[in-house]
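Re-run requested by the PI after the first attempt was lost when the workstation crashed. Everything re-entered from the original request form. Ligand of interest: glyoxylic acid.
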Amino acid sequence: MRGTVVSSAALPFDIAPILGAVEYRAPATGSFDRAALLAALGDADALICLLTVAVDEALLEAAPGLRVVANFAVGYDNVDVAAATRRGVAVANTPGALTEATADFTFALLLGAARRLAEGDRLVRSGAWTGWAPGQHLGADVFGAELGLIGFGRIGQAVARRARGFSMTVRYTNGSGAVAPADQAHGAVRVELDELLARSDVVSLHCPLTPATRHIIDAAALAAMKPGAVLVNTARGACVDEAALVAALDRGHLGAAGLDVFEHEPAVPAPLRACARVLLAPHAGSATTTARRRMAETCARAVRAALDGRAPETVVNPEIYQT
Ligand code: GLV
């Protein structure tokens, strides 16, 4: 069956063989701005969109023929799923495609923040490095440290697997999610958030952004963390109160932070950018060629399925297919 597929951004992967016979609209480079996206959507059947696109009532209203929104991300807090469901629009994401890439990146940030890699790089580049000294550039141990994972889905579990190689003690919270069976827990133990914060040398976020996790790391949570602890966020920026984080770093309570995500991307508050103990990354957790190709292909398969009247494997609102 033919259909019209709009992509909110140019995708550097060939998904045409998966989409099959469709009319495909996408910008030649970069992304459509909001007005151009709404104009392109018009009579479209399917939308492939980035996590930067707010798929809200207004967008759904502008595209009354839409049958599926394939979000080029595992997190889909940018999509009003309830509104899509009311209109019978399937919403799909890309679980599994980026699990290992994001877990790798979590460890890059964890190690980089704990061992002050960006600061060291800046020092060497500046030409001001005076040579090896016993008290210079001291960081925190990662091997054998206590790791607390907030969120224990695919990515949290993949981080726990890596942590075993570093002999870390791993604890996790999982919101309203189930206790992971022993074979998926990788030696990690489920605890309450208070205990996780109080006992962890490193706290790493792997939860979706929901009303319950918005600013889950606020001033009180930061104060409850161990002095010198490291915070890592590869989830969503709004899970952390950025002003409170800067304050905790500035007064020396927190040792370091590694952040891949920010509350108002791409804006990063000046005090955070000025903070030497923060390692900053441009939302690159899934940025490997393999992961991004899999994400594109997962989106294309979701679109193809929905156009064929089937539920996409990665649908998050399967109830729209129940008659
Ligand atoms: C990236 O942040 C994603 O949710 O895939």
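Saved to the shared folder this time. The chain is about 35% helix and 15% strand.
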